[in-house]
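Hmm, how's this folded?
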Amino acid sequence: MRRILWISGSVLLLVVLIWLAMMPKPVAVETAAVERGELVVTVESEGITRVRDLFLIAAPTTGRLERIDLEEGDMIGSGEVVATIYPAPANEVQKSELEAQISAIESSRASAASQVAALEGQAKQARKDRDRLAGLVDQGAVPKRDLEQAELAVETLEDQIGAARNNEKAAAEQVRAAKSGRATYGGNTSGVTVSAPERGNVLRVLEKSERVVMAGTPLVAIGDPKGLEIVVDVLSSDAIAIEPGDRIIVDGWGGDKELEGIVRYIEPSAFTKISALGIQEQRVNIIGMFSEYPDRLGDGYRVVARIVTWQGASLLKIPSSALFRQGDGWSVFVNENGEARLQSVTIDHRSSFEVEVTGGLDEGDLVILHPSNRIEDGVAVE
């Protein structure tokens, strides 16, 4: 009898062990709680800094360039001599070319003057619109954002007027230098001086040594290194969501803190760029300005910019890695007392790592991150 009980107990234990071994084990998962907080939607891309008003001084005539003694970083004043060129006596063909060049530069100067006049007219109207909106904001008739957009429009037009006036000055200086080349008609070999059209720092000396240069050869680049702007190229599909006045967060520039800026304008024309994967992309340049000047940044420095297109506070949000497509909608798996439960959700705004949930989940729910093919509705999880 004792032996029978021992055998029966052993068989029962074996059956229990086999049953436990055959039971499905809970799937190990990573979860995150549904929580309320701030959500910031950004468009992120690499960009570069550049001097806003850059003057590239070129040789007005063909001839022997005297060695340029300027160094990068030197400060030069408006009208200060940058280089001297000793042209060879011109033949009839060169004379005709020089006259054509002078005519083209004078046309460019006239065009720049017309642009200045047109921009001044636009700025005058923009100031009227800004003042009118200021009154409406005080009355509560329009949101303050409309006034901020109007103020930004005025600032942008004033910047463009300054750039157009600088272009007009540069064209006038080129005309003066080109006309001085007419001295070569009679075999006069006196030097033609090339002057700076505006006060600024020498950014690059492109032709340092004495040599023969052709007309139009870039010699020196000057500008104000503190007048930096940000140029960020983004996908044209992302550029649709960006507006002038949007906040820019700049990091990845080498400093120990993030820099702030705003979008000045979006270039109206896109361009084709080949991605690192060899895919043709249509991209658009977004031009921004710094809210405060970063001392250690210079012209042509690489930065990483995040352009804020939307942000909200106290929103119900989850990590985007919990979402997956199911039919035409979105779903998640919720860890409900150790069991995966399939749940359809409705979403709205998305950032790179988080998404706003507008329906289907409550604060405190645990969603499963990166659900694998082993996760199904009703599966045990831990």
Observations:
- The CA atoms of residues 135 and 141 lie 9 Å apart.
- DSSP finds four helices and 21 strands in the chain.
- The first strand starts at residue 30 and ends at 33.
